[in-house]
Fold:
Amino acid sequence: MSHFRIALLLLSLLFSAPTPSWAASDGKPATVSPWLYKKLQKTERLIAKKSYGHAGKMLRMLLNKVDQGSYEQALVLRSLSSVYALQNRYGKAAEAMARCVALNVLPEQQQQALLNLGQLYMATENYRKAVRILEPWLAENPAPNAELYVLLANAYAQLKQYRKALPYIEKAIKSSKKPVESWYQLNLALYYELNDYRSAARILQRMIQHFPDKKEYWEQLAAVHQLLKQYKKVVAIKDLAYRKGLLTREKEILDLANLFLYVDAPYKAGKLLTDEIQKGRVAGNSKNWELLANAWTQAREYKQAAAALETAARLNAKGRLYLQLGQVYVAQEQWRKAIMALNKAIEKGGLKHPGTAYILLGMSHYELQQLKSARQAFNKAAKYKKTRAAARQWLNYMANDTPG
Structure:
């Protein structure tokens, strides 16, 4: 799984100046000496002016002057952590905050400090430590900002513990009033990693509802249903995307046409290709006209099939498509048109089985009582191994039935 972007949520506590006294956890006041209070206020002013280097130097000096293990030391470490974070020195920021948390002397602020430490571990990509802090924190604080659920989901995702990540990203999505696209993307990525394509399809359907103009989600939903071998759903999704104007490239339109043919909806394929060739978004080349002809043939729209096939044959360098057109006309007993098409097939050449063209040509001439031309065609068909037996049968039949 690709790395997820981790946002560092440094909350307001990191930048809030202390008041002269607080109530400690044992009920005794946790006090700040006047001189330190003034120094910390000065560092806050330096931070506000973005003089981070000066503020950090001052705070490091203060660490040497406060009592070890004291409330004052915790305050200085917390402020120093904030300065490092603002300098994007997250490793140093985490180190300072970890020392602050370890003192366990911040009145009513220990939980917030733990949260900040977890966030800093995320920023330094120390995901295991982040999980060890954030998971119990969330268990004790059940109604946090939804982004904290996302943070923990990202940590588990980075550790490739995808099932553990799922409940947290889903809680985040559920608790948010407005859909956040990146959260849905993470939720989807987790299901992909677990090969849970049915759940992935469910998420993609919700994503399409919230972000209907995002073409990639339509494509992914179609791809998921294809993996599930739900081909009719694939066609329905792509057809709807096409109707919404999201499928405009030639390949996309041709893929949809072929899908219509695959699910036995040839009329829709024929209509689609006809419209798009006319619009110019699908090239009017021999291959595409042949596809259109096949669609109309499967839809039993033989007149339209013949017209499309004739255009395809005219644009093709070889005679194969004229042979196919001749077969269509023979099937419809349109003998004169069949003769014209078959002669063009023979004239263009390049036929894999020329004898077949001569057999059909002979049959067409015979039906029009053009017996001499029919014999000539059958005699030529007899020169090819594949059609020799059929040609001789026709010649024998004609000899017995029409002796002149």
Residues 1-17, 19-27 have pLDDT under 50 and may be disordered. The longest helix spans residues 385-401.
